[in-house]
Write a structure and sequence with these properties.
This protein has 341 residues and is of the alpha+beta class. It contains 9 helices and 19 strands. A 6-stranded mixed beta sheet has the order 6-7-8-3-9-10, sandwiched between helices. Strand 7, helix 5 and strand 8 form a beta-alpha-beta unit. The longest helix has 18 residues.
Length: 341
C-alpha cells in the first residue's frame, strides 16, 4: 500500500464544488508536486491533507492509518506556507525550537536537533537574528527548518518560493530537493510554475478545475500529455485543427481532432527527409539563453520553433525558411481532449 493515500476527496463551499472526487497516492520518501493554474484546487487539497480544511466526502490515509478526521496537531505533518508565518518576536533559533518545546522534547535533544537543521538549511550564524532582519530566502529556510526539525511523517509546502526572485528560487529549489532526499521525507509541493515542478518533482499531479488531469514523472507529463490542457500547460505546443493540418501539409488528418507539435521537434531548413514540411517566413525570434525561439508564419499560421543557440547560423527576421517535422512527433487530441500519439 502507498504511504499517503487520498481517496475520492470532494470539497464544497456552499453550492460550489471545488474538488471533484480527487484520488492520488504518494510513496514513502517521494517528492510529489500538485501543479496547476490558480484556482484549480491544489492549495485547498493541501490544506485538507494538513487538517486545516474539512472535506465533504472521501478519506485520507497516512502510513496505513485513517487520518481523515484527525486534528492538525495529531497528524504529524509539517507545513511550510507561502508567507513564512514566522514569529516576529522570536529569534531564528527560537522559531525553529518552538515545535520541539510544544512536544516537550528535552533541552539537550532540542539543542541537538536545532543545531542539526541549522546546518542542513545553511542557517549557522543566523541563530540570534530576528525575522525582520532576514532576507526572503533566509526566512523561507527558517520556515523549512522549523517544519522538518520535528521529523514529521509528511512535509507539505504551499507555493513556498513564489515571492522569491528567480535566481534565488532556483537555488532554493535545489536545496529543498537535496534536503528532502537527505531526510528521505515524504513531501508534497504545491506550485503553479511548471518549470519549478519539472525541476524538483519525482511525480507531478497536474490539476485543473478541481480534478487531476494527469499524474506521472516530469518526463511522462511533458512527453506524453493525455489531454490538450496538459499539452498546453506543460511546455509549449503548436496546436492545429485537422482542417488546418490538411491545408498546410496537403495531408489527410481527421478534422474532428486537434494536433500538437512541440517547438523543439520542428527543424528549420533541414537537409534530412521529413514527412511534413512547409515554407514560411521568420516573423520574430526570442533568445531564451541556450535556446532561440523562432516565430515562423506559414499560410497565416504562426508556428513556434525552438533551436539550440549555438552562436551561428541564426535566421533573420524576414528570412524565408522551410519547417520540417516527422509524423512520430505529432500528438492528436480528440474533442474530448484525450491525447493519442
Amino acid at each position: 500500500m502507498s504511504y499517503f493515500v487520498i481517496n475520492n476527496i470532494k470539497k464544497n463551499y456552499k453550492d460550489i464544488e471545488v474538488l471533484h472526487d480527487v484520488s492520488l497516492e504518494v510513496q514513502r520518501g517521494e517528492l510529489a508536486t500538485l501543479l496547476g493554474p490558480s484556482g484549480c484546487g491544489k492549495s485547498t487539497l493541501l490544506r485538507i491533507l494538513a487538517g486545516l480544511e474539512s472535506i465533504s466526502s472521501g478519506t485520507v490515509f497516512l502510513d496505513g492509518k485513517d487520518i481523515t478526521n484527525l486534528p492538525p496537531q495529531d497528524r504529524n505533518i509539517g507545513m511550510v506556507f507561502q508567507e513564512y508565518s514566522l514569529f516576529p518576536s522570536m529569534t531564528v533559533y527560537d522559531n525553529i525550537e518552538f515545535g520541539l518545546k510544544r512536544r516537550r522534547v528535552g533541552k539537550k535533544e532540542r539543542a541537538r536537533l536545532v543545531d542539526e537543521v541549522l546546518a542542513m538549511t545553511d542557517l549557522k550564524g543566523k541563530e540570534n537574528k530576528y525575522p525582520s532582519t532576514l532576507s526572503g530566502g533566509e526566512k523561507q529556510r527558517v520556515a523549512l527548518a522549523r517544519s522538518v526539525v520535528t521529523k514529521p511523517k509528511v512535509l507539505l509546502l504551499d507555493e513556498p518560493l513564489s515571492a522569491i526572485d528567480a535566481k534565488l528560487r532556483r537555488s532554493l529549489q535545489d536545496r529543498i530537493k537535496e534536503l528532502q532526499r537527505e531526510l528521505n521525507i515524504t513531501t508534497i509541493f504545491v506550485t503553479h510554475d511548471q518549470d519549478e515542478a519539472m525541476r524538483i518533482s519525482d511525480t507531478i499531479h497536474l490539476m485543473n478545475n478541481g480534478l487531476i488531469e494527469q499524474s506521472g514523472s516530469p518526463l511522462e507529463i511533458y512527453s506524453s500529455p493525455n489531454s490538450l490542457f496538459v499539452g498546453s500547460f506543460v511546455g509549449s505546443y503548436n496546436i492545429f485543427h485537422g482542417i488546418d493540418m490538411n491545408a498546410l501539409f496537403s495531408a489527410n488528418f481527421e478534422e474532428s481532432k486537434s494536433y500538437g507539435i512541440r517547438p523543439e521537434k520542428i527543424k528549420l531548413n533541414s537537409t534530412e527527409s521529413s514527412a511534413f514540411q512547409a515554407k514560411g517566413v521568420v516573423l520574430d525570434l526570442v533568445s531564451m539563453g541556450s535556446v532561440i525561439r523562432y516565430i515562423v508564419e506559414t499560410n497565416d499560421h504562426k508556428i513556434q520553433v525552438d533551436k539550440l543557440n549555438e552562436g551561428a547560423d541564426v535566421f533573420s527576421i524576414g528570412e524565408i525558411v522551410t519547417i520540417h517535422f516527422d509524423e512520430q512527433d505529432i500528438f492528436s487530441f480528440r474533442r474530448n481532449e484525450h491525447a493519442e500519439k
